Amino acid sequence: MDAQELFGERYAQMVNTGLPVADVDAVRAAITDMWSEGPGGWVQEWSRLASGYAATGSHQLAALAYGWAKFPVLADEFKRAALASRLEQYQLAAPGFGVSFWREVLELPYQGGTTAVPVHVLAPFDLPPDKPVVIASGGVDTWKMDVHTLLELMAAQLRVRVLAFDIAGTGESQVPMTPDGGAQIVSGVIAHARTLGNGVVGHLGISMGGYFSARSGLAGEVDATVVLGGPVEHAFTRAGSLRFGMDGIVGNAIGFDHQPTPEELSAKFADFSLRPLLDEDTNAPMLVVNGADDVHVPQEDTLVFQERSDTDVQLLPDTGHCAVSKFPEVIPAILDWLGSALDKANPQVTP
Prior knowledge:
Layout: H1 3-16, H2 21-30, H3 42-55, H4 59-69, H5 77-93, E1 100-110, E2 113-123, E3 133-137, H6 148-158, E4 161-165, H7 179-193, E5 201-206, H8 208-218, E6 224-228, H9 246-253, H10 262-269, H11 275-278, E7 286-291, H12 300-303, E8 311-316, H13 327-345
Parallel strand pairs: 3-4, 3-5, 5-6, 6-7, 7-8
Antiparallel strand pairs: 1-2, 2-4
Helix pairs in contact: 3-4, 3-5, 4-5, 6-13
């Protein structure tokens, strides 16, 4: 992976999540290589910025910078150390969040045993107990702490509990990503979420997280689901055309310990297609959103939801993966839709 190419793809995400432009530009100028361990290396330069923030008590900025230090996969001890530092700084920043925060580790059923799934729960400080819960996750390279700003906004605006987790094969997950194994973990998260509020559960999935929210929505496991940039079918036929290091990123998530060939990825991808569920005519209320210019997920994986009952499909022009460049208009629309869908699922709730 070329570090400067990665900056080209992710720069807007880096600055839009709260890092000062001047600091991002300085790191970008300093980095010369993605994987070297010394000066000019991706992890070291981002970690240098993060440690400077931490030293001044700017824990939220430190957490953001360490988040980029560990990006995009935990491929070595340096990136795993960056993730540990990120978690430490994130928890130090938690008293300054605009919502309450707690962390717990769930032991969820997994392939005949259990697996540990750390989760973060965010909620307004005065939230009554009889409110819905929204489970939420990012994708293969953007994990639960990476989307904190969105989760905090959702908790505050919708007045719900938000339970954030990492999908299988990513972040703090202890198991590789497989279609059924990953879905089993999501089912366990849903079951736990139903015990936290009034029993109504929504699901927001971003990117590969959208694959799992599409799956839970199509199967009717949740009361409402949002699929933001999720691959569901055609994306899994493009193993030979993955860009921006995504072959290695996805390969890491699904358990390879080497750079997979297109043939190896194709063999793994074959089981991911949601075609069997798409062929069914029942689903929970769904909102499916993506950008028309997505280089990772083809338009067909959004448009395939057209004509389904209780499904709103939005393929937005002039924006790419997850419509991230249009977030100022996309996120309010998602929250409006989700709030309405949760109210319809159980309108007898405390204001």
